[in-house]
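User: I'm new to structure prediction. If I give you an amino acid sequence, what do you actually give back? Let's try with this one:
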Amino acid sequence: MLATVRPGLENLGFDVEAGKKKHEKIKRPVFFGEGGDPTLKYEVDAYHEEWDCGLEVEAGRAWQGNAIYRDLIQAMVMVRVGVLALAVPNIYKWKSGSSPDFERTKSVAEALYGHSRVELPYGLLLIGY
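Assistant: Good question. You get back a string of structure tokens that encode the predicted 3D arrangement of the chain. For your 129 residues, that looks like this:
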């Protein structure tokens, strides 16, 4: 999916993950050590520097593999992520069934953003595809 939207994202000014090799990944710092060098970084699929926007595009493991929870938590501690755009399948289908990933993810987002006990430090854009 990311390969399909890469050209459009790049035209908008996003840096987009180019592949699975270490040097092709997009990383955002979390902690800094001596000299200001990052000591911990998390990966995002794409990042827009001017908009402080991180993008995660999930597929089959969005719900079943708990990737949405990882994305929501890691975005909380990444430096300069004021908006997390999270793209998940509307419905993920496999040989023996299906999962309404968008609706399930939307339910989690509504609970987090609607609850008085939680205050996330970024805006969330949830995209169903």
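You can read the tokens as a compact description of the fold. Here is one thing that stands out. Helices lie at 2-12, 67-77, 101-114.
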